[in-house]
């Protein structure tokens, strides 16, 4: 009998009875020291920097296809595996992994709500050391009309009313009061949705309930039928926004992995 598909936003109590299930591939995108100290039983470690290509001027650019394929094979990403990802902060790194899975056409995945902080706060079982992965040999290809856009695409669509740009950075970064690149500000026409508004610190950094998230989306007048492109500074915070929107039923989602690290450091791009 086939197990039912797990929800995109997975609670700890939903994972607990399925620990050890061979259909699951639990991936920990925490820092190495934290992973060795404690991780969800059976979780395989994936260093975050292996998901990105940190070449100037960007800091979170999309990894070339061949190196990424080696990484996904090393951690044992089988065709039918259901990936459950988490990290030890706000799940931005874990969300970046799940967004990457969309890019390579692997649709079976969940985000462990609250990540490691929530898991530890509730005193669920943990393991120490490293879980050895079971490598595979698969071909991974970026989907032709995948979930990523580049700088040129944005330049060509800046005045496109059918597209909504969502900036997941802080209001200070968005306004230019806090500058982390050669220039401050935001991509013209973008709407600011600080990723922290999605999280509930009082509930171990879980995503807020669906009703509250929908209220935030409604306040910003974000239209589900439009193409929505998320970005931040290095596409970690905006990856979490991408996954949160996907959990609410948005299906015309893309993200700009170059984000402000690329756009703000390029002196030829327009800025507001």
UniProtKB/TrEMBL annotation:
CDD domains: TST_Repeat_1, TST_Repeat_2
Sequence ranges assigned to domain Rhodanese in this UniProt record: 20-128, 159-272
Keyword Ligase in annotation: no
Keyword Repeat annotated: yes
Protein name stated in the entry: Rhodanese domain-containing protein
Alphabetized UniProt keyword annotations: Repeat
One Pfam family matching this protein: Rhodanese
């Amino acid at each position: 009998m086939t197990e039912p598909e797990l929800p995109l936003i997975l609670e700890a109590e939903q994972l607990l009875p399925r620990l050890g299930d061979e259909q699951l591939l639990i991936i920990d995108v925490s820092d190495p020291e934290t992973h060795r100290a404690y991780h969800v039983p059976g979780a395989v470690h994936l260093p975050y920097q292996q998901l990105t290509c940190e070449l100037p001027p960007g800091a979170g650019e999309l990894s070339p296809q061949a190196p990424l394929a080696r990484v996904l094979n090393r951690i044992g990403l089988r065709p039918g595996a259901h990936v459950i990802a988490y990290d030890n902060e706000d799940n931005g790194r874990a969300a970046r992994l799940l967004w990457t899975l969309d890019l390579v056409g692997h649709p079976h995945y969940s985000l462990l709500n609250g990540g490691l902080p929530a898991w530890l706060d509730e005193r669920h079982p943990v393991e120490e050391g490293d879980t050895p992965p079971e490598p595979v040999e698969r071909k991974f290809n970026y989907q032709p009309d995948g979930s990523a856009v580049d700088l040129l695409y944005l330049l060509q669509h800046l005045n496109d009313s059918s597209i909504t740009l969502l900036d997941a950075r802080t209001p200070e970064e968005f306004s230019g009061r806090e500058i982390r690149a050669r220039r401050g500000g935001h991509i013209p026409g973008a709407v600011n949705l600080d990723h922290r508004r999605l999280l509930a610190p009082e509930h171990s950094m879980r995503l807020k309930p669906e009703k509250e998230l929908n209220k935030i989306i409604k306040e910003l007048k974000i239209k589900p039928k439009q193409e929505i492109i998320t970005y931040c500074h290095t596409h970690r915070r905006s990856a979490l926004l991408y996954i949160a929107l996907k959990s609410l039923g948005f299906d015309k989602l893309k993200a700009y992995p170059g984000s402000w690290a690329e756009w703000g450091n390029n002196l030829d791009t327009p800025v507001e």
